[in-house]
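G., the chain you wanted modeled:
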Amino acid sequence: MMDDLSTPLGQNAPRKRRFRLPFTAPQAIATASGLFLLTFLGFAIFGHDPMGGEPVAVAPYDPAKLPGATQATIPSAAPPTNAAAPSGQKTVTIIDGSSGERREMKVGDDGATAGLDADTPAMMSGIDQRLLEQSRYGLVPVAADGLKPWRAYASGTDLQRARAATMPTISIVIGGLGVGAAKTNDAIMKLPPAVTLAFTPYGSDPGRLVETARTRKHEVLLQLPMEPYDYPDNDPGPQTLLATASSEQNADRLMWLMSRFQGYVGLANFMGSRFLVTDPALQPMIQQAAKRGLAWFDDGSVPRSLAGQLAGAQGVPVTTADVVIDQVPTAAEIDKSLLKLETLARERGSAVGMASALPVSIERIAAWSQRLESRGILLVPLTTTLMKSKSS
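Predicted structure as tokens:
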């Protein structure tokens, strides 16, 4: 037996086995991060959230305290299904544009609904009362008695339209107005009346600006915010019409949009690269335009847009911009685009251009328009082009 004193130190001492994990700390962190990323991507790709990106606010309220509310006009939380409405009242179904929730509301024969008129825009001058319909958001346009807003609010005279029928014509639409009073007023005041102005439904008081534009004899369009492919990163604004929302939700949103001001001849898209190519979403909006006697203008920014095809099938007066005038916003390129419009007008009899309210665009279009008729071409409102197309 080996002497303990001659044995190397610790040689016979039992060794303790250290417990080790089958992976390192960096590997654990990388795995957890990967699982989180996969979960997020799965939700983003397969999760169905049509209201994604929409602002949401929750506020408690007491229906009994709404202005003008009475026991007869406020629905109960669970009304009896066989309960009859009081004499002189009607029951309507209200569909919330954000959640899709339905609820019943009783209104009088005159269309008044308790507590829903606080934010209704003020009535504008020069509006035909016969061409208005009450919605829960306020007054919206409607065709009635053979009258249609796209003809009732058309600018220009019969003599000017007669001249347009025998000469090449150009219509120009300036879009994105209503937000930014300074640029909007520049467009209203510096551009000739034959230029059509398209207003978004936003801004603190779009109705006042629209009224000024109509006083200056400009035709007016309402631009509808529509879902682009990169929504909500690229967000047109509140109450955007969504390709993934139900037709009832979009119809409710459309009512809000159309109630912002009155006197427009038609509807136009604001963005909408996804919405305009989605037939089930776009079709009900075109049907509303047909019902309400409104024209439709496609700004030409979406090559595969279905608007022209669907509107034509519904009998809606429709036209699409041939040239985006300030796609390259320099004076030289804008002048080239305007020259292209002249060429198209001579070849086809009419042409339509679209531009934004950039200072350089307003300046170049205003200068160009002064010399246009001397070159044998008329600058005409959008409805004149629509009438010319229908007659031809």
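Residues 28 and 34 are 10 Å apart (CA to CA).

Shout if anything looks off.
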